[in-house]
Amino acid sequence: MRIVIAEDDPLLREGLALLLRAEGLDVVATAPDAAEFLVAVDTHKPDVAIVDVRMPPTHTDEGIVAAVEARRRLPGLAVLVLSAYVEQAFATDLLSHGSSRLGYLLKERVGRVQEFMTALHRVAGGGTAIDPEVVAQLLTRARPDNKLERLSPRERDVLALMAEGLGNAAIAERLFVTDGAVHKHIRSIFAKLDLAPTDGTDRRVAAVLQFLESGRE
């Protein structure tokens, strides 16, 4: 797995590189800002990019913009975005440009090495990984007038775990239910969120996007 890291904090940037190399991964380049990150992507054609949300010069959304541009230049690039605190709008923006190979984690998750590496490998393998803290805050911020209010408490639990990026088997294990029960809950979620099966829509992703959108002010 070839990785490029974009992070303006030199200690975190080098710490990440050391951690990943210790895990046997190939960190091919590190960058302190969005411009150098895009040059590194063009030069090294990595499999995965780990990108800070806020980078110079304005420290607003340079990382998100660069991540979207990097995926345009290198289709199939897996991107794991790191943020100092919950900014669910950025997670929504990322997923809106395509759901596969995307992750959004709080920086504190890096210190929990096993969780961080699990999320990294999930994203590199084509999945989605949303930080559990982001999901938890979205659950408390959901507006009372949205479709999520139609869901039962158990269905909301299932959707929250879907938003983290877990598959059906992992959800079943986490909730101590059968795979069949999870499948039934997901079918019910799709129905209650008015997500009819169509050729052009990934209903699982559409459900997660509705969930993420529900936390916006």
UniProtKB/TrEMBL annotation:
Keywords of this entry: DNA-binding, Phosphoprotein, Transcription, Transcription regulation
Transmembrane residue ranges: none
Ranges of residues in domain HTH luxR-type: 144-215
Alphabetical list of SUPFAM superfamilies matching this protein: C-terminal effector domain of the bipartite response regulators (SSF46894), CheY-like (SSF52172)
Domain of life: Bacteria
UniProt keyword Secreted, yes or no: no
Ubl conjugation as UniProt keyword: no
Residue ranges of domain Response regulatory in the record: 2-122
4-aspartylphosphate carried by residues: 52
Descriptive protein name: Response regulator
Organism: Nonomuraea insulae
